């Protein structure tokens, strides 16, 4: 089979790799039918995630068909169409018992495309398959389902829920990439009074507007003045960081009101300064988090019920064998207008 292999910082290649196979009784092997590229994959290629070593197949967002099962897997059958979660869960360690699957201490957590081979390949091994896959209803397309592998639960859990968005809040999302746009979608479920989105790319701001943002700004515009005008000078109730740079994190801390919450979603490759000399007196809550995906079943139900529309998130489509071209498109959104790129068999 072929897979997209990390060769070190800045290097990747679509090459022949060993076939995926069942190695443990709780494994499944899926034929990858739809897969996408995450901003975290770009961080890996930039050298920001040193745990990923050369030779690793990247990717952690896929929909596939089960073609092989370990002897201990329950609830799945060969031929089932499944969503492969970005998080693997053993189900028995302390953190899994608390629903904090991202912190699994028994071989799970974020492992796909990180510490084991991922899903940007023709076939993939999925550990702990009975707890780390979701059988898909017929009415849910592969294209819609793959958005629930990572970006929807990440934005919902690490952004909206950690940020404690409530009805009537003013919410600011810094970064209108796929994660930021998914944060707009899921924040709307809580009826905020205002959603403000900040990004450099005009195409992404337009996408944010179409998904429900009330105000869109570029960093060059005076964001603080706009947010203060909306909130009577107080600042935003919740600010979500969805980029992962020191500058955007520091911007978030200037936009939040006293007693508000900064919910960091972005993957950071460099230290960010925490200005406690200014922040200590403002009663802020700053949250961080790796997605746990405990919300995936609920999000899937909302997708089936028509309460979530993820169709606008996919802007470019490629056959799987053109994944290197897809990476080029995804990595240059200002020029290409790319949000999510979808690769299919």
Properties at a glance:
alpha/beta, 345 residues, single chain, six-stranded parallel sheet
Mind explaining what this structure looks like?
Helices cover 27% and strands 24% of the residues. It contains 13 helices and 15 strands. Strands 3, 4, 5, 6, 7, 14 and 15 form a seven-stranded mixed beta sheet that branches. A six-stranded parallel beta sheet has the order 10-9-8-11-12-13, sandwiched between helices. Strands 1-2 form a two-stranded antiparallel sheet. Helix 6 links the parallel strand 8 and strand 9. The longest helix is centred in the middle third of the chain and has 11 residues. The two termini are 13 Å apart. The model has no long low-confidence stretch (mean pLDDT 96).
Number of strands: 15
Counting H and I runs of at least 4 residues, what is the number of helices? 13
Strand content: 15-25%
What is the approximate shape? globular
Q: Mean of residue pLDDT?
A: 96
Question: Topology, please?
Answer:
Blueprint: E1 2-8, E2 11-16, E3 28-36, H1 39-45, E4 62-69, E5 81-84, H2 94-97, E6 123-126, H3 129-132, E7 133-135, H4 142-145, H5 151-161, E8 170-174, H6 178-187, E9 194-198, H7 202-211, E10 215-217, H8 223-230, E11 236-241, H9 246-255, E12 256-264, H10 276-279, E13 285-287, H11 296-304, E14 314-319, H12 323-331, H13 333-336, E15 340-344
Parallel strand pairs: 8-9, 8-11, 9-10, 11-12, 12-13, 14-15
Antiparallel strand pairs: 1-2, 3-4, 3-6, 3-15, 4-5, 5-7
